[in-house]
Design a protein that fits this description.
With about 350 residues, this protein is α/β, with parallel strands linked by helices. The protein is built from 13 helices and 12 strands. It folds into 2 domains: about 200 residues, no CATH class; about 80 residues, Cation efflux protein, cytoplasmic domain (Alpha-Beta Plaits).
């Protein structure tokens, strides 16, 4: 978020609260209760902007055909999607907003993309639900594939009839203390239970081997001279933590390169897999020397620089060689002349002897 956006949100007095917890622990089921307790005007949940019992903008991640697509929708990865929701948020001028996410990082990412200030308070699901209630919600999600959208059935049927399962009514409040208007403090909220397409097909998990390959590919794409020596993958309820040990070539600007590589790895893995990378720690094990290799062609074409002494020595060698060649040629010429004279004398002797015989 830009500095001007932060100042603008501060002057408008916008406050964001975040309800965080693992997927399937009952966040959407209890979102209305949290909104009522903290007097929050709107809820952002799984790609939707909700006010009271109406869907104002966005599209539900639960309508996606696969899990990775659902995560992208929940994170407002698509520009048109987030611009639509941000425009309505600006128009409605909400002062107090509730954002739902599986971790604090996810909540921060959603607020950043929707041009909202960071949450002033994080509420963890364990603070408002017992462990027994959380376990029951997880069983319902994993075994039956049921999800909750915190709006009445009529709203879901209108926009997402294919995934609607049933409506439920939840009573919140204390009956023993009468309300001046209604006679009691009990409020009835209707929620919709849905069964997304990706929930029917089973759970999607990414193995450590596949994640390792993706990290190696990202590092190689970022800088092919950086060598990964070791990769450790840690998982917890907030996401994945990566510890990468590398060798970098000598002359690398470490601070900027490491920061940009961390960002590159996180952005690409989250974009293509939908999983959340909580942290990327990079350990530089060794700074390796850069080996400059010259080809045969480069070596032969490269001019050689000679000293004055070497030049004089070379001239002498050439002069001696030329003198030797001339002397050799001269001796060879004399030898040829002598040979010719001998041959001539032999021929004349043979001719004289022939005449005597005759």
């Amino acid at each position: 978020m830009s500095f001007l956006s932060k100042v603008s949100n501060f002057l408008k007095g916008i406050q964001v609260y975040a309800l965080v917890g693992e997927s399937g622990t009952g966040k959407s089921f209890r979102a209305k209760l949290v909104a009522q307790k903290y007097n929050l005007q709107a809820i952002i949940d799984d790609g939707l902007l909700i006010q009271d019992d109406k869907i104002l903008a966005g599209r539900s991640a639960k309508r996606e055909s696969n899990f990775l697509g659902a995560v992208r929708v929940a994170l407002f990865d698509d520009k048109a999607h987030r611009d639509e929701v941000a425009k309505v948020l600006h128009k409605m001028n909400f002062k107090r907003i509730l954002v739902l996410g599986t971790s604090e990082k996810m909540a921060n990412k959603i607020t950043l993309r929707l041009q909202l200030p960071p949450p002033v308070k994080f509420i963890h699901i364990e603070e408002i639900a017992s462990q027994e209630e959380i376990d029951q919600a997880i069983r319902s999600r994993r075994i039956e594939g049921k999800h909750v959208i915190p709006v009445p059935a009529i709203e879901v049927k209108k926009s997402y009839p294919q995934i609607f399962h049933k409506a439920i009514r939840v009573f919140f409040g204390k009956k023993e203390k009468p309300n001046k208007i209604s006679g009691n403090n009990t409020r009835v909220y209707e929620k919709s239970v849905v069964r997304p397409e990706f929930s029917k097909k089973g759970r999607v998990e990414i193995s450590e081997a596949a994640l390792t390959q993706m990290v190696m590919h990202c590092v190689n794409e970022f800088n092919s001279e950086i060598r990964v020596k070791k990769l450790v993958i840690k998982t917890d309820e907030r996401g994945y933590r990566l510890v990468i040990t590398i060798d970098v070539p000598f002359g690398t600007q470490l601070s900027a390169t490491i920061f940009n590589m961390q960002k590159y790895i996180i952005e690409n893995i989250e974009r293509y897999t939908g999983i959340l990378i909580e942290e990327v720690s990079i350990i530089i094990d060794k700074i390796s020397a850069v080996e400059k290799k010259e080809t045969v062609e480069e070596t032969s074409d490269k001019p050689k620089i000679m000293t004055a002494d070497q030049i004089i020595k070379k001239i002498k060698e050439v002069a001696v060689s030329d003198a030797f060649k001339k002397e050799k040629k001269k001796k060879g010429h004399k030898k040829d002349l002598n040979k010719n004279d001998s041959d001539k004398d032999a021929q004349e002797g043979a001719a004289s002897e022939s005449d005597n015989q005759n």
